Amino acid sequence: MSGDRKAFFWIAGFIAFAVLLYALSSILAPFVAGLAVAYFFDPVADRLERAGISRGLAAGLVILAFLGLAVVILVLLLPLLQAQILGLLTTVPDLIELLRERVRPLMELLYENLSSGEIDDLKSAVEAFAVDILAWVGGLLKGVWSGGMAFFNIVSLVVITPLVAFYLLRDWDQIVARFDHLLPRRSIDVFHQQFTAIDNTIAAFVRGQASVCLVLAVYYAIGLTLAGLDFGLLVGLGTGLLAFIPYVGASIGMISGVGIALAQFSDWQSVLIVAAIFIAGQTAESYILTPRLVGGRVGLHPIWIIFALLAGGALFGLTGVLLAVPVTAVIGVLIRFGVSQYLESPFYDGGQAE
To answer: Which residue has the higher pLDDT, 291 or 168?
Structure first.
């Protein structure tokens, strides 16, 4: 088969896979979630297997431990989170009014130093920005909900995901071996190198970033609650869980937390304490947690991660969000491989390389 025909079949196969993924995106969420759970806990199952436990029993123990931990967390946190969510929804108008009262002196000072035309331009810009942000957030949430979070799919996530995770975790090594057997022997070393690079990238982000999110969620939840912030548990957990989106999660959390603090506290000291909690958390994430738990193996620019998550959520709902980083990692590794091949080719150096 000629090179052109091979390229055609690869491109056609990729397009067919993308179309199939889009067509089935509404039902894929539990299967993708199960794959993610199996991939995340595969090292744990490997350790249990090396300790003398059969693979099937190891997979069962891991999934049972995962489900037990999830149930405990839900039982302990769900009532508190439900109360804080309902409380936040009912007090949002009051919080907005209190926030307006707090910033009114600053706005009056600003009005004194700006002309009426500049003030109108500033108002228009702020209103347009707010409308765009709300529309974007609403569209993203709508896409995630319709694509993967309808009631049926919530039930599917709860019921199907553990089953998929168990069977994939039990047969993980066999699946990898069978796939490896299908690879062309002539290029087996190249495939192994690229799959290793892809695995390192995904593992660094998924396993490492999950650890970062967990640590930050606990830190923010405890810190904001101890600081006396209303809805501190909700804001803290939300900020930590959103930390996998570079910059966006921390920004949303800090704006929400400081905004609530401005409306709640009458003294600036308490507001500064809340702000300091977020600054300390962001500093620890950037200089301690991410370098140690994630490292430099990801190889994905934060902008690409943000774009991939937003594009995946908009196109495929929850399934797209779950697949965004792995797909981006694969594309990134393949692009780097293609660039390295190009730089070593006669086409690049004009045939001067020996």
So the answer is: 168
